[in-house]
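Hi all, long-time lurker, first post. I run a small reading group and we've been trying to get comfortable going from sequence to structure in the token notation. Rather than ask abstract questions, I figured I'd post a concrete chain and ask someone more experienced to write out its structure so we can walk through it together at our next meeting. Sequence below, copied exactly:
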Amino acid sequence: MKRILPLMLLAPSAAMAHPGHFAGVPLAAGLAHPLAGADHLLAMLAVGLCAAMAGGRALWALPLAFVGGLVAGGALGMAGVVLPGVEPMILASVMALGLAAALALRPGLALAMPVVAAFGLMHGQAHGAEAPQTGLALYALGFAAASAALHGAGLVLGLRLRPALVRGLGAATALAGLTLAMVG
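-- Answer (accepted) --
Happy to help. Here is the structure in token form:
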């Protein structure tokens, strides 16, 4: 199973989350959405890895910036606003965040927060565009909570593992993003 899971994550069908999960249960649908696509899952874990590598205020500021952008993008998507280049930007976020963790980049928060928030905006628009017809607030609460939990998981990994392993996870994330972009 350990060898099959990475291949499953890289499968084209796993690249994008799909609507219809947990129909009629908006909170569960929201919780499931970030977990249903490898692109969302990897980017959100990578936010935590980047925050851990940067340390200091980035530990909370980067995840908060992403979730803030995510909620704003979700509201836009739910309102029917279509942002240009959402899917390419989502894939770019996987590659860029993975590369940032791999290189242990520590840009200032004045640069990192808007970039991470913009990535969150794109992920949120994708989530919002696939929102159920009812229970929008519960759906949004679900995808925001699941995203924050994934950031937390990335933070825990980033803070507990040796820096070389965290960098390796970042490189693997960037490579997975590139693979998803090529097969999707």
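A couple of things your group might point at:
The chain has one domain: 30-183.
Confidence is low (pLDDT under 50) at residues 1-19.
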